Amino acid sequence: MPYKQFDRGKLRIRALKERQNKIVIERDCVLPGTVRALTGEQLGKVQEAAARVRQARRAGRSVILAFGAHTIKNGLAPVLIKLMEDGWLTHLATNGAGIIHDWEFAFQGQSGEDVRHYVAEGQFGIWEETGRYLNLALIAGAYEGLGYGESVGALIQNERLLIPAADELQRVARDALASDLEHAAAAADFLAAVKHFELPPGPLVLKHPFKQFSVQAAAYREKIPFTGHPMFGHDIIYSHPLSQGAAIGRTAQRDFLSFAESVNNLEGGVYLSIGSAVMSPMIFEKAFAMAQNLHCQKGQPIKNHYIFVVDLNPSHWDWNKQGEPAEDNPAYYLRYCKTFSRMGGELRYLSADNRDFLLALERELGGQR
């Protein structure tokens, strides 16, 4: 017998404009060229990372930047966009919260609710526009064959979603049963949303007045993969009744496979993991294992890759010289160091603010490649 489930239809969902936010992107954004101090040793590591990025791009290899949501919340979109536009990055990846903050900045120019305050009111994360439009973007993206980040990037950049008529979706679902079961299922899921929420057919126009601050939109314009790697229950969009597990799963799986394809080109490449304690190391080790499987079949394992990890926590363990610490050593539980130390290649760790690192990296790379 199935477990009893929470009824999201009973939630009181308030308009996003009623929410007070901590971050205003026009005020709090960090512009390229901003000077922030790093010590000599820290700067030396950044210079090494920049040299490896240049080398990888000259060789046509992947330069992947994976980052936590605070990279977006800290206003670093202009720096990330410049790194993309200058040709230094071949792939960006973030978690579900990074997707959400980026969209909210593009849509209303603000993000970052006071969690303690809104939990006490029973209102944390339960906002109409964020839940409705991001879930609709994923449902539409799943139907159109897009990934998680690409679905949201397309919404921001194009400022519209196309809602098919119910009879069209029913026809597509029926006809695709003979040749494309996944598309048939995505059409049926879209049909269920259209009928249940009485969505009118046609273009849904949605302005994003601050989309110049959207990393997802910039990646969509530049045709650079921007992949989202969510976990069920981690993000506020799951509170909304429009949230549909099948659409999230389809788009997120496409993004993981896109991420794995970029990792497959990591021989001679660079992986930058910035402020992501769990998502980045977890998806990387699985993607790397898949890519290594293919390379070992050809007798050409991936060996010459460079992994650069940045986080605020200090690490006094030398993972390159000392190997892996014992389980009774607290350093063993720094997931982002432990996991990446097992992935071969060269590992560098820098304890620094993500703003300091990315600004210094952009400055060291010095414009278009």
Quick recap of the structure?
By secondary structure, this protein is of the alpha/beta class. It has a single domain, classed as Rossmann fold (3-Layer(aba) Sandwich). The chain has helices at 25-28, 40-58, 69-73, 77-85, 96-108, 115-120, 128-144, 148-158, 166-176, 181-196, 215-222, 245-263, 279-297, 319-322, 335-341, 354-365, and strands at 21-24, 63-67, 91-94, 110-113, 160-163, 202-205, 226-228, 270-274, 306-311, 346-351.
Any overview of this molecule?
With 369 residues, the chain is α/β, with parallel strands linked by helices. The protein has a single domain, classed as 3-Layer(aba) Sandwich (Rossmann fold), CATH 3.40.50. Helix content is 49%, strand content 12%. It has 16 helices and 10 strands. It has a 6-stranded parallel β-sheet, sandwiched between helices. Helix 13 links the parallel strand 8 (270-274) and strand 9 (306-311). The radius of gyration is 21 Å and the shape is globular. The model has no long low-confidence stretch (mean pLDDT 95).
Could you outline the blueprint of secondary structure elements for this entry?
Blueprint: E1 21-24, H1 25-28, H2 40-58, E2 63-67, H3 69-73, H4 77-85, E3 91-94, H5 96-108, E4 110-113, H6 115-120, H7 128-144, H8 148-158, E5 160-163, H9 166-176, H10 181-196, E6 202-205, H11 215-222, E7 226-228, H12 245-263, E8 270-274, H13 279-297, E9 306-311, H14 319-322, H15 335-341, E10 346-351, H16 354-365
Parallel strand pairs: 2-3, 2-8, 3-7, 8-9, 9-10
Antiparallel strand pairs: 1-4, 5-6
